[in-house]
Amino acid sequence: MAPISVGANIFRFITWICLVTSYRQSSRLFVRQLTYETIDYLIIISLEVSIHAWEMISLCLLDLSNDQFNGTFSSLLISNLTNIESLFLSNNKFQGMVSLSVYANLLRLIELDISFNHLEVEAEMMSPSCFLSFKLSTLSLDGCNVKKISPWMLHNITSELWLSGNNLTSPFISNFQNITSKLTLLEISDNFLHGTQLKYFNLNFPQLRHLDLSNNSFNGNLPMFFKDQLQMLDLLNNQFQGRIPHGMTSNMSCLVYLRLSGNNLKGDLFLKNSSLPNLKWIYLNNNHLSGTFPYALLKSMELGMIDIENNDLSSELSSYLPVLQKLKVLLLGGNRFEGKILMQICQIRDLWILDLSENDLFGDIPHCVDNFSSWLDSSYGGYLPVDSWNKIDLITKGS
């Protein structure tokens, strides 16, 4: 559906509006005459909002995200939204200091997203009453200059907490050892968090399915804190060291995405009895891992992405080159693999990117490479993370 262009005074003179009658079933649209008091769901695209927008006392969902709204966001504007359940204000140009205590007065609020504005968010609850009343399913404060993770966040948020790109600096877990959180998603990437006290993580966050600690300064050995239900784990660009714990590769049967790139890990990648049956993306590049190609990955039949370049892996590659039918990207450059590239690579029919550079390989590239249908068809629409394309010196599709 194309965006609808409307005038700047829509809320002052409106008599007809396009109403999404169900946010979760938004394919059905009805047009009817409305008053401020009867609007339940409102998604606004590319227009100015007058003060009347905040007089819709029946509104339960308001989405102003991804526009160019600016100015100071006054608490008076939202005080009348007494029935609001979902409030999305992300990716605008709102300015100033905002206290989350303001939103605690919206007793029905369960989803709040004010990410990526020009705000400085005060996350502390100023009174015990605010702490008790402010219970959310999802809180998104990415890029909001938050300086501290408050304990109430881990107590009161029951599903998702997004805090990437802030100014969090203290040791993360040391103040929360007695807290058991219901969070299923914790996103705290791109901060300044540090420390080694992560061994209790499994107890603090027993229901986590998505964990992103990337681009911080955590150090020490990788902890054994991960539950079986974890599906996404990202520890990119920290200072973890030591070996990859066997439990990480044997007890996490639901894991789909694993990224340990840019640390100081060493030792063998995986033991032979490792098993990650649902794994689709694995990034272990830019470490100090040694040994042979991780043969255990051949059991991960869903794999579409393998990146283990820039390590110290060796052995004759022809003995281990994976034949995985769903593999799209295989990055092995910057290691010490040796030998010839055997014809078995021809069995990976959907291979899109292959990097074997900076190894000790010799001989000819099999002729079948030129005939891969996936290399000739540029319409592939599957998911390839952006960093798949970084620092690639390789044969690419269509060249």
From TrEMBL:
SUPFAM superfamilies, per the entry: RNI-like
Claim: Oxidoreductase is one of the keywords in the record: no
Superkingdom: Eukaryota
Transmembrane parts of this sequence: none
Keywords for the protein's UniProt record, in alphabetical order: Leucine-rich repeat, Receptor, Repeat
InterPro entries (alphabetical): Leu-rich_rpt (IPR001611), LRR_dom_sf (IPR032675), RLP_Defense_Trigger (IPR051502)
Pfam families for the chain: LRR_1 (PF00560)
Family (UniProt): Belongs to the RLP family.
Protein name: Receptor-like protein 16
Species of origin: Gossypium hirsutum (Upland cotton)
Gene: LOC107894655
